[in-house]
Amino acid sequence: MFRAATKLVKTESEIAKMRVASHIVAECLNYIETLIKPGVTPFELSVAAEEYIKSQGGLAAFKGYKVGRQTFQYAACISLNDAVVHGIPVKVPLKEGDIISFDVGVEKDGWFGDGAWTYAVGPIAPATQKLMDVTREALMLGVAQAKVGGRLFDISAAIQQYCEVHGYGVVRELVGHGIGRHLHEDPQVPNYVPGVSEGFPNLQLLEGMTLAIEPMINLGTSRVKTAKDKWTVLTQDGKPSAHYEHTVVVRRGGGEILTK
């Protein structure tokens, strides 16, 4: 995805504006969680999210987002089971045993927040629940490393090591990102420690840098493929994937989560 070149460090007044947008993201996710049940369609959830965001004076940041010649038409990316991210909100009802990753961004007064959470639809397989738990815990380990004086790859290493100890695949093709006046800004935030040849800068973390940290972790292989809709990213082996994301400010004691 496109990442805008902009200043990496935000002022406290700018962070305050991001906090408002991010709070709408968090409350939207809380609201959507109450609606998830068998029989509800992802399309209905996307519509509900857009209505909620509008009621709070925000704009659904994903709707109208362009990648090349493609334009995303929905308020949220909703990815089911083996879909990693960027899922189209289809009109097929959820069923018990599904997992659903709900990713939503909000623009408010020219500033952005971004967040995602994975939810179970009724009882799910224990192995899938463990995947969700580990991915969520990995996110928090990454957030803890978003601290002044560290390096960007400290975040990456914390996520990768924790997930790989559990035998999970850490997606390489998709990464977290900076955020602020644009939904996607520099720097890119990989969930693994990249090699030198991959070209990711291991930046020093500075007070006031704003990052969207988002581990995308697969039960099986780390490899992914793109569906025929040209948006949805799927695991190559058809096994489930989990996705959690917070918008975070780099602070001295670790990341301050704005999407609470």
Beta-sheet strand percentage? 25-35%
Structural class: alpha+beta
The CATH homologous superfamily is termed Creatinase/methionine aminopeptidase superfamily
CA(first)-CA(last) distance: 25 Å
Order of helices and strands: HHEEEEEEEHHEEEEEEEEEE
Assembly category: single chain
Q: Which spans have pLDDT < 50 for at least 5 consecutive residues? A: none
What's the domain count?
1
- Kindly provide the radius of gyration, computed on alpha-carbon positions and rounded to a whole number of angstroms: 17 Å
The number of strands is: 17
Strand order within the widest sheet?
10-9-11-16-17
Tell me which CATH architecture applies here.
Answer: Alpha-Beta Complex
| Dominant shape | globular
At CATH level 3, the topology is Creatine Amidinohydrolase
Tell me roughly what share of residues is in helical segments: 25-40%
Q: What is the overall number of helices?
A: 4
Q: What would the average pLDDT be, to the nearest integer? A: 96
For the biggest sheet, the summary is: 5 strands, antiparallel
What does this structure look like?
With 260 residues, this protein is an alpha+beta fold. It has one domain: Creatinase/methionine aminopeptidase superfamily (Creatine Amidinohydrolase). It has four helices and 17 strands. The protein has a five-stranded antiparallel β-sheet with strand order 10-9-11-16-17. Strands 1, 4, 6 and 7 form a four-stranded antiparallel β-sheet that branches. Helix 1 packs across helix 2 and helix 3 packs antiparallel against helix 4. The longest helix has 24 residues. The radius of gyration is 17 Å and the shape is globular. The chain starts with 11 loop residues before the first helix and ends with a strand. The mean pLDDT is 96.
